[in-house]
Amino acid sequence: xxxxxxxxxxxxxxxxxxxxxxxxxxxxxxxxxxxxxxxxxxxxxxxxxxxxxxxxxxxxxxxxxxxxxxxxxxxxxxxxxxxxxxxxxxxxxxxxxxxxxxxxxxxxxxxxxxxxxxxxxxxxxxxxxxxxxxxxxxxxxxxxxxxxxxxxxxxxxxxxxxxxxxxxxxxxxxxxxxxxxxxxxxxxxxxxxxxxxxxxxxxxxxxxxxxxxxxxxxxxxxxxxxxxxxxxxxxxxxxxxxxxxxxxxxxxxxxxxxxxxxxxxxxxxxxxxxxxxxxxxxxxxxxxxxxxxxxxxxxxxxxxxxxxxxxxxxxxxxxxxxxxxxxxxxxxxxxxxxxxxxxxxxxxxxxxxxxxxxxxxxxxxxxxxxxxxxxxxxxxxxxxxxxxxxxxxxxxxxxxxxxxxxxxxxxxxxxxxxxxxxxxxxxxxxxxxxxxxxxxxxxxxxxxxxxxxxxxxxxxxxxxxxxxxxxxxxxxxxxxxxxxxxxxxxxxxxxxxxxxxxxxxxxxxxxxxxxxxxxxxxxxxxxxxxxxxxxxxxxxxxxxxxxxxxxxxxxxxxxxxxxxxxxxxxxxxxxxxxxxxxxxxxxxxxxxxxxxxxxxxxxxxxxxxxxxxxxxxxxxxxxxxxxxxxxxxxxxxxxxxxxxxxxxxxxx
Amino acid sequence: xxxxxxxxxxxxxxxxxxxxxxxxxxxxxxxxxxxxxxxxxxxxxxxxxxxxxxxxxxxxxxxxxxxxxxxxxxxxxxxxxxxxxxxxxxxxxxxxxxxxxxxxxxxxxxxxxxxxxxxxxxxxxxxxxxxxxxxxxxxxxxxxxxxxxxxxxxxxxxxxxxxxxxxxxxxxxxxxxxxxxxxxxxxxxxxxxxxxxxxxxxxxxxxxxxxxxxxxxxxxxxxxxxxxxxxxxxxxxxxxxxxxxxxxxxxxxxxxxxxxxxxxxxxxxxxxxxxxxxxxxxxxxxxxxxxxxxxxxxxxxxxxxxxxxxxxxxxxxxxxxxxxxxxxxxxxxxxxxxxxxxxxxxxxxxxxxxxxxxxxxxxxxxxxxxxxxxxxxxxxxxxxxxxxxxxxxxxxxxxxxxxxxxxxxxxxxxxxxxxxxxxxxxxxxxxxxxxxxxxxxxxxxxxxxxxxxxxxxxxxxxxxxxxxxxxxxxxxxxxxxxxxxxxxxxxxxxxxxxxxxxx
Lengths: 652, 503
Hints:
The complex is a heterodimer of chains A (652) and B (503). Chain A is 6% helix and 53% strand. Chain A contains 6 helices and 36 strands. Chain A has an 18-stranded antiparallel β-sheet, with no helix packed on it. Chain A is globular, with a radius of gyration of 31 Å. With 503 residues, chain B is mostly helical. Chain B contains 21 helices and 7 strands. Chain B has helices at 2-20, 24-27, 39-48, 58-61, 83-86, 88-108, 115-136, 160-177, 195-212, 218-231, 252-258, 269-277, 282-286, 322-329, 358-371, 379-393, 405-414, 422-433, 438-448, 473-478, 480-490; strands spanning 65-66, 241-243, 266-267, 287-290, 304-305, 340-341, 353-356. In chain B, α16 (379-393) packs antiparallel against α17 (405-414). The longest helix of chain B has 22 residues, at 115-136. Residues 5-18 of chain B have low confidence and may be disordered.
């Protein structure tokens, strides 16, 4: 049984255009003195002090003073179980567990007196406030019937079980617009109140069984079968069965006399299938209607309801569960007195019927629909190598490398024709994420600079770059190589280690640099300012060399008005010196029968140094927000922090 | 051995199957959301969503309001393609209006008791499609808005030449089918279900659609115009079709001009001069100038002057540097001092948004009469009625925008319809009457060629004239095949490509 109580105050408001301190700072002109803004956060009436023509860039000191977001959460989770031994080798166990939390949140989306909102009607102050109360409960009830028996050199274990999972989410919220008294954020103080109650429930029932056979503790064979029933899918599609089988062979134990250099060796092979419905929200099979909280007046002044179908996603009642099939081979060896240890595995994973929201034409009246999107593949290698190059009485040097190479491919969508594609996510400004048959998953696509057959850039009659007529793809947003190296040194109890990690092979679209280009804060936009304009290097539409000088601001604002993302798509990889640790274990100085059994002190530095990156101005890991359908699409987030801390460990 | 084991397990599973999905169908039914509502409420939603912002392109192309600023405000001010904005009409009308009208029609077409509601939805739908095709040219029509009902995710485009006759047919049939003996849909916020007014709305739209074809197909135009007049068009302001806005459903143009873009939009020199030189009393209803303003925050009521003599319009073709130079040349402290549409009166948050007015209808009748397509009345009388209707309409915005009857009559007497300049006069009045009704002002300006505006002189412009809006990037991305088919017929997807009725 566990209980936790959490209070979260003012998490940073990032990746927004309004009310966002990071966005306001990133977009601010370099000549703007921040102390002027600080001294003038509010005007004489108590409203936001407007400092910019672009009122969406809220005065950061106004936001700092007036905006709040308070989250309180109580959580209780635990389980009880009962076990009964039917015979010495067979037992049955039942278990019920529950995770329950209650979460209250209140936040002023727009503090009173915000300049980017229209003024409130007479007698009120503008502003927007939301108060939410959520309750979540997940219960799991399961039973296992399990037996283990040995037959000579063979060991057999069999399990049969079932699980019933139920989840329920309740939401009560109210949104209040415009207030009577400034800075008093309560429902009673509001002009227009929009209450909401939402209930969401889902359940998964499962039955499973497994059997394992072992021979003399070095050969193992295991098989499982499981069937899930999902409540979110239609009756015809909700059941899915999936098996798995695996085997492992500790070959180092079959040799009666081990070669001196090998102390442990194991090979393993596995094939497993998994089914899931996690990306299907409950009730996504029907179109629902809602009526607005606010009525509208007809010509005689009588208030009438206003309502319509809700949501922008066309419901799909025929979704099938997603299933993944993975084949994996592994090798693990400890050699040379455990001074060379290797763990290698190779895998291929095929995901079928992945559930994605594919974009459709706006002219259909909707934005997207949920579909089972064909098949995609992930294959790769994972390697961990641990070496101890030096080991003496007083000094040891450990080297560990852990890394993976993973390559993806879209095998089919609705057909397996190469080039067939769907759009699964769009960046807040320009650029989108596509799945294209025959290519790596997560392709970043958008307009580029128009070029002629020889590769010369084409400019319009006004000297401003033109966009390609179709969107082009820039590469996958998914990394191929990930991993890190750790070196640890231990000299007479002094420990020193450092970790370098890397992520390579992915492209990213940078929203921060996009804003920097259109606000003239990117270094690249300095060119041409002293000369009164840029003459683009290239040709005009007739093929003649471009000689028109374009105003620098107009030259770069094409990233927004024409959606040209070419200048802001970068290699998103990096090499980082991630961590340095220095420590000393004082345990050997303690008397033997002491109350304290161990003392160690460690100094740790995290995010120490960026060794190499290709995207300017930001940390390639700092994404304002991310989700599966927005990989590689960066929106302004907070700068990453380097930290230095110490850890004092005492054992009793 | 493992196979036998698995088989036994399987047999065990099968016996449990029946209990493993019990109650799931019930569980996956939403307990808080309705699966249907009275379609009349959906019509209200469609009506409110018909009111959209047209500041960046339409109102600027017809040179009435313009911004000297760039970035997100780039559009008709610089004659440049801003894809972030050209898709506004597309998304607003397909997603928020046509999706709803198609839903209403699907739900009521087999129910004879809701026949009036269905025809009301057809009229509003025809209005929306007219705006879409006038904006972009060839668009999805039959297959548009059918994402849920027919599961058409990638609709085919139709040529404007095939769409207009269909719109005309829809308006003719729906207006005729409205019946006073049928159910009166009092929940309707446009007319309270008043069948007579809906008929006039439908026929006035038919008149508008007919006149739209005056350049490209005068025969078809004349037929439609005659049918509209025979059916009965609007003649008084009580019959105007407009969206009533309030503090909960704010006027979107007013919302923009009262919040983030308050200091970014100004009345243009061509517009202000047109009103000033004729001593048009509407100038006082529309404009305000914040004297001495050097920034947005200095635009306070105390500094505002609504006197006609004080109003000065921002010349076309200026960016935020050259606008400052022009302001100095005009004797102003900065460009923040140029005249604006008054956001506390005509563009206040609760101001109505007009869709079809008696004034516009009268002026179209004046032109139809001038061409001899109708024989009742005189062009001069319709012309005078049109101006009178618009001046009386000014009172609908705010108590302080009303035009005094005395001033109105002086103006009408001083500006009669003169032989030889009929089309110019009629359509220039139409231009003034359609102020803030951006889509209609833009469409009629292209069709008639009046008022005779000078081309936008902005040095960095991409096109000489904006004749349409460009297709959305989302269409280029997901509906590529159908879009390219449309482009190959209509012409390049650029701002200056002329649509069919404008050729």
